[in-house]
Amino acid sequence: MGEVVFVYGTLKRGERLHGHLKGAKYLGRGKLRNFGLYKVSWYPGIVPEKGAKVEGELYLIDETTLKVLDQLEDEGREYRRVRVGVEREVGGRQEAWTYVYIGSLAEAIKISSGHWVGEKT
C-alpha cells in the first residue's frame, strides 16, 4: 500500500534531492498549517509555529523509500519524522509523514511565504 509523505524543500520537483523520490507517485500540492519554514543551511526545515503555513508536495512512497528518507533527513538527530494533516490543493485533508527540524534556529532565516525555492539541479 505505501506511505504518504509531505515534502517542502530539497525533495520537491526540480530541487537537488528530488531523485530520492524516483518511483514515488506524485499526489499533488498541499499546505501544512501551524508550521513555519526556515532556511537552516542550503536546505530548509520546518518547526511548529502558530498561524504560519508551509507549501509542499505529497507523494506516495514505499517502505524502502521511507527508510532512505529517514537516513537522508538524519531522523532523530536533525529532523524528526511526524504525522501531520495536510490540506490538499484539490480539497480535503491528507494524513502524511513529514520531517520537522529539531536543530537550532539561531542562524536560520525565516521564509515568511512558506514556499521554498532553492538551488535547482
What do you see in this structure?
Strands 1, 2, 3, 4, 5 and 6 form a 6-stranded antiparallel β-sheet that branches. By secondary structure, this protein is mainly beta. The mean pLDDT is 95. It has 1 helix and 6 strands, in the order βββαβββ.
List keywords for this structure.
mainly beta, 6 strands, globular, six-stranded antiparallel sheet, Hypothetical upf0131 protein ytfp, 121 residues
Low-confidence stretches: none
Q: Helix count?
A: 1
General form: globular
Topology, number of strands: 6
What is the beta-strand fraction? over 45%
Classified in CATH, the superfamily is Gamma-glutamyl cyclotransferase-like
Under CATH, the topology can be stated as Hypothetical upf0131 protein ytfp
Alpha-beta classification:
mainly beta
Which H/E pattern describes the elements? Answer: EEEHEEE
SSE arrangement:
Layout: E1 3-7, E2 25-39, E3 44-61, H1 63-72, E4 79-88, E5 93-101, E6 109-110
Antiparallel strand pairs: 1-3, 2-3, 2-4, 2-6, 4-5
